[in-house]
């Protein structure tokens, strides 16, 4: 029996009505692979499309954010997820992903496995959607990101932690960028056990233009999508 009694899946989303259904379908499928209740919360952040309606239709709880900053949106989703539970924070696992990402079937089961082995925070792996990359781009991604069980990559699209560790460091900062990196540093500095895995990598969008300059799309554009020099 898992020490975790409840899972909150937190998803920030800005104008992601097109991609969100696939993300939610994958999360619901992954929820069926574990015996722990799962609540999915979408923070519709500064949206001008029908992201919120799509999220509700997909079975998620929706919180509306006007911040326009991913750190604030992630925090709002988690806050909403924690608001209606009296479960011990040490027995709640917060699994974070993105609206343009698709988790594998064993995603939550892998997160629970590490939580049951004592992890306070889990750094998961991601890979860009191979359908959106040319063959040489896929090869470049693999060369830059060899699959290793222990790694130091931080991806908000695949990051989990206990609610107790999250609350101990006051959660995600209200910042437009690198909110995930700041959270991980704070959890490490507080002395909590941080581990990483290459198991259950999350497939994320390989679009070259993202919602924010300097985010994952910018990284892909600069290091993976740009043609190699001579």
Q: How does this structure look, described?
A:
With 230 residues, this protein is an alpha/beta fold. The protein has one domain (6-225): Spore Coat Polysaccharide Biosynthesis Protein SpsA, Chain A, CATH 3.90.550.10. 35% of the residues lie in helices and 19% in strands. It has helices spanning 20-31, 51-57, 70-83, 107-116, 135-144, 163-168, 179-189, 216-225, and strands at 6-13, 38-45, 61-65, 92-96, 101-102, 121-123, 126-128, 159-162, 194-196, 202-204. Strands 3-2-1-4-8-6-9 form a 7-stranded mixed sheet, sandwiched between helices. The radius of gyration is 17 Å and the shape is globular.
Short précis:
With 230 residues, this protein is of the alpha/beta class. The protein has one domain: Spore Coat Polysaccharide Biosynthesis Protein SpsA, Chain A (Alpha-Beta Complex). Helix content is 35%, strand content 19%.
Layout of strands and helices, then pairs:
Elements: E1 6-13, H1 20-31, E2 38-45, H2 51-57, E3 61-65, H3 70-83, E4 92-96, E5 101-102, H4 107-116, E6 121-123, E7 126-128, H5 135-144, E8 159-162, H6 163-168, H7 179-189, E9 194-196, E10 202-204, H8 216-225
Parallel strand pairs: 1-2, 1-4, 2-3, 6-9, 7-10
Antiparallel strand pairs: 4-8, 5-10, 6-8
Spans where pLDDT lies below 50 across 5 or more residues:
none
Q: Sketch the major β-sheet.
A: 7 strands, mixed
CATH level 4 superfamily: Spore Coat Polysaccharide Biosynthesis Protein SpsA, Chain A
**Radius of gyration based on Cα positions:** 17 Å
Class per helix and strand makeup: alpha/beta
Strand fraction band? 15-25%
- Helix % is 25-40%
The largest beta-sheet arranges its strands as: 3-2-1-4-8-6-9
* Number of distinct beta strands: 10
Tally of separate helices: 8
CATH classification class: Alpha Beta
The ordered string of helix (H) and strand (E) elements is EHEHEHEEHEEHEHHEEH
Count of individual domains: 1
CATH architecture: Alpha-Beta Complex
């Amino acid at each position: 029996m898992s020490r975790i009694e409840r899972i909150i899946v937190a998803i920030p989303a800005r104008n992601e009505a097109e991609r969100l259904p696939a993300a939610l379908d994958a999360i619901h499928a992954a929820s069926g692979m574990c015996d722990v209740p799962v609540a999915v919360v979408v923070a519709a952040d500064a949206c001008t499309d029908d992201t919120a309606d799509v999220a509700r239709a997909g079975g998620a709880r929706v919180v509306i954010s006007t911040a326009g900053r991913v750190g604030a949106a992630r925090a709002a989703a988690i806050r909403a997820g924690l608001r209606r539970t009296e479960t011990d924070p040490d027995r709640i696992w917060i699994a974070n992903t993105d609206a343009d990402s698709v988790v594998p079937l064993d995603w939550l089961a892998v997160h629970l496995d590490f939580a049951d082995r004592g992890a306070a925070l889990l750094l998961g792996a991601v890979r860009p959607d191979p359908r959106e990359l040319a063959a040489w781009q896929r090869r470049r991604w693999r060369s830059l990101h060899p699959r290793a069980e222990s790694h130091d990559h931080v991806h908000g699209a695949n990051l989990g932690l206990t609610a107790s560790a999250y609350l101990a460091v006051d959660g995600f900062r209200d910042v437009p960028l690198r909110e995930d990196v700041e959270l991980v540093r704070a959890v490490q500095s507080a002395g909590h056990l941080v581990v990483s895995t290459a198991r259950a990598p999350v497939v994320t969008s390989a679009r070259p233009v993202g919602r924010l300059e300097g985010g994952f799309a910018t990284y892909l554009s600069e290091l993976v999508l740009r043609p190699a020099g001579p």
